[in-house]
Q: What sequence folds into this?
């Protein structure tokens, strides 16, 4: 005699309904998960900049001033010109011993360039420094650049590339102080080179007393995230101050004076930059089509991450101020307010709710 008990289970329709409900829940939860992850990455970026702020102030306590930016401004020519006269190294390299980077710092010879042709600085300058990298950043490679075809020092060091940086000193601004368009370019229509003014990390060393706008009102280091070897600097390594070729003694010769500077590296002085437009500039194109390109059509065009405040955070960028605080600068900030936040002696009054 057969049992009349039927086996229980899902029908096909019930199974499809369950799958559909799960799919809807995943679709609803995924944006929230992604937002939570980005919030965590942005928080880590903020912490990175806070560590850089502590290192800057530890440096100031030891030396009586902030370090130079690497890139700075020659105000003896008209219009003022970019220069690289502070020994061929970045701010980030100089503050390494003040942020538990003593081992890397001790491996560097600051009497010559970071990419000196024999490769004596290659081991140190190729180190990946996590504090210099924003976790939200996106680029074509990993944490180091690829082998530089113009850099024989890499063959000496083992061809593993130099370490990237997503942060740089805001060494000047040339936003037009009148607020009027100059039609300089599609990317930076309010740029006026004659109006250049120093940021905190300028030529030489800067004493806190020189920052008359107040350290809490002046940006020292900002995000310029995602730069890699597909970006081009407008300056060759032989470029010095706009009037003279670069000395080969004292400064130390780079690996190839006819090669363009590699401003995505943390040791490179050209990692500092001027602020000529709004954060997260939407102008394009912002980089060459391939790594190590000789196409200079996009060099220094200030679009996107090309030598401007730029991040992969939604709505703005993180910036380190001279007092060690880190604040979020909105994309919608007034350009005049942004100029005021970069200049260290402009005499402007900036309210906290204006950015």
A:
């Amino acid at each position: 005699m057969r049992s009349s008990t039927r086996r229980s289970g899902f029908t096909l329709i019930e199974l499809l309904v369950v799958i559909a409900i799960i799919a809807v829940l995943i679709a609803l939860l995924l944006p929230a998960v992604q937002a939570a992850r980005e919030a965590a990455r942005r928080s880590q970026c903020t912490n990175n900049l806070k560590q850089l702020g502590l290192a800057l102030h530890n440096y100031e306590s030891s030396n009586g001033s902030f370090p130079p930016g690497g890139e700075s401004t020659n105000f003896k020519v008209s219009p003022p010109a970019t220069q690289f006269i502070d020994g061929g190294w970045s701010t980030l390299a100089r503050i390494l011993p003040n942020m538990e980077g003593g081992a890397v710092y001790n491996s560097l010879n600051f009497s010559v360039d970071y990419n000196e042709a024999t490769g004596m600085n290659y081991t140190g300058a190729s180190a990946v420094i996590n504090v210099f990298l924003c976790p939200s950043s996106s680029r074509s490679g990993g944490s180091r650049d690829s082998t530089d075809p113009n850099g024989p020092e890499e063959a000496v060091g083992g061809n593993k590339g130099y370490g990237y940086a997503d942060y740089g000193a805001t060494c000047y601004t040339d936003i037009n102080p009148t607020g009027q368009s100059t039609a300089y370019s599609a990317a930076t229509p309010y740029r006026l080179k004659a109006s250049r003014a120093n940021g905190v990390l300028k030529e030489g060393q800067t004493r806190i007393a020189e920052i008359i706008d107040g350290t809490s009102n002046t940006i020292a280091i900002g995000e310029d995230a995602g730069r890699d070897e597909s970006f081009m600097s407008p300056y060759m390594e032989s470029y010095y101050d706009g009037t003279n070729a670069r000395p080969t003694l004292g400064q130390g010769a780079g690996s190839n004076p006819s090669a363009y500077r590699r401003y995505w590296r943390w040791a490179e002085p050209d990692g500092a930059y001027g602020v000529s437009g709004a954060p997260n500039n939407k102008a394009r194109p912002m980089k060459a089509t391939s790594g190590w390109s000789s196409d200079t059509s996009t060099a220094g065009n200030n679009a996107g991450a090309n030598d401007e405040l730029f991040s992969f955070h939604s709505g703005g960028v993180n910036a380190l101020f001279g007092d060690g605080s880190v604040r979020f600068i909105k994309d919608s900030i007034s350009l005049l307010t942004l100029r005021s936040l970069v200049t260290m002696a402009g005499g402007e009054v900036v309210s906290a709710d204006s950015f």
In short: The chain has six helices and eight strands. The helical segments are 12-63, 91-94, 102-106, 122-125, 153-157, 335-342. The chain has a mean pLDDT of 91. The two ends are 83 Å apart (CA to CA).
